[in-house]
Structure formats: structure tokens, C-alpha cells
Amino acid sequence: MKANRSVPAATVIPVLTYPDVREAVAWLSAAFGFAERVRIGEGHRAQLSFGGGAVIVADTGSSRRLPRAGEVTLAVMVRVSDAQAHCERARAHGARILMEPTDFEYGERQYQAEDPAGHQWTFSETLADVAPEEWGGESVSPA
User: Fold this and answer.
1) Structural domain range at position 116
2) DSSP H or E stretch at residue 22
3) Phi, psi of 91, rounded to the nearest 5 degrees
4) Domain harbouring 22, CATH code
5) pLDDT of 79-97, one tens digit each?
6) 5, 23, 40, 121: which is deepest, by most CB within 10 A?
């Protein structure tokens, strides 16, 4: 894949809609630790990075809409090195914690949070390398 400084290097890049792009960038940076890498217009879009991943924050123009209360159609998962500390940071900045950090049989400690626009996030810390077959999953070879 060719590199392009105008696009995040991540292979999969979610685009999330917010009523105020600049406010969302500030909040996501403070609460979740994202870093702004590209700004497109003052309030149109912004590209944020986190480790090797990326997310695009977009305005509500065109056909883009905010999440509706009581409906979850998208959740973003982000890998972190310390889920408990990350959760406390998010909580301190007003994130609504939907699930406290919890250890799972598949080797991850995860917590879930909702941002001010209603987007749901799962933050996941790896505790151990566990084969999917050990907890009921199945390894599948790529086609």
C-alpha cells in the first residue's frame, strides 16, 4: 500500500459524526488520549491518531447523523496498555462508563464508555495470549 500523508496509515478508519468537530477533537484528546494529525476546515473534519490506529471526526453535514439514544449501530474498539488507568482518565473527563474494567477469559481486560455525542467505545488491554479454542472460539485461516 502506498503512503499518503493526507490519509491515516491505518488500514481501517472509522468515521464518526459529531455536532461540533473542534469540541469533539478536544474532548477525545483529553478523555481518551487521541492526537489530532490533520484538520480539514475549522469545523468540517479532523483525523485523529492513537497508536497505530486512526479515527476521523466529521460534522453532521450531508446525510451524516448522530447516534440516537437507545440504539447502538457502531462501537469502536481501541487497544490500550492499561485499561484501568485509561478508564479513570475517561471518567475524569466526563465519559459515561457503561462497563467497568472487566477481565475476560479470552485474555483481555476491557471497559466500555460513551462519549458526549453518544458514540460507544470499548478499550481493551491484553493480559495474556489465549488461543480462541480455549474459550469457545475457533481459529479460521484467511482465504
Assistant:
1) 15-60+74-133
2) helix 21-32
3) -60, -45
4) 3.10.180.10
5) 999 999 999 999 999 999 9
6) 121
